[in-house]
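Just curious: can you write a single protein's sequence together with how it folds?
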Amino acid sequence: MPLNRLWPYSPVVRHRQESWRILLAGDNAVGKTSFAYQCSEETFKECYDTSLQEEHLVELDCDEIPATILLLDTWVAQACDIGIDDEIIPSGHAFILMYSVTSCHSFKDIVNMYHQIRKLKRGSNPVFALIGNKCDMRSSREISFNEGAALAQELGCQIFLETSAKTGENVQLVVSNIISELRKAGNRRTQMLNPMQLLRLSLSITKLWSSIIRK
């Protein structure tokens, strides 16, 4: 479910023992927000306010172990040009690099996003999932499956999948695979950020999004 910046204080989060923060990165109109709604509500939402950043809470059992996922739907390609607050990228345990299979431009922007994240996450080894969204739009495809798989291998992404936020194809599988990779990497977190850290993170996201909108 989408949360309106009050998610740190939700009692739903507190009783969980495993929690992760996943950042969605990609160009405008690749389907990040629709993907997040499909994850959290299992529904396709085509119309939404693009001027708002959103945090989506996803609760699921992966290998019979409950997990709480916070999907931060905040970062578009323009963020690379305006400066990214140091609180946002380092807070992520995993990163979904999303392009649309119908857009060569969004595919080309992935490499720059990847290196921006690597720069801010130096010294750590986050999980990267390269996701080609809109795979249901076969007649409009510009990027082949093999091209996506090759880029994932080149960047060292642990996960590569094509998804459809519209039909739900592979959407939940992305999150499940990310959790499995995080567990294998030994990055399990047993607590959410404390309230002050959560407040700083929320303010940082708001600051970044405001800068993008002004631009």
Q: What stands out?
A: Helices lie at 11-14, 32-41, 79-82, 104-120, 145-155, 171-184, 195-214. Strands lie at 2-3, 19-26, 54-62, 65-75, 94-100, 127-133, 159-162. The mean pLDDT is 78. The chain has one domain: 2-6+17-187.
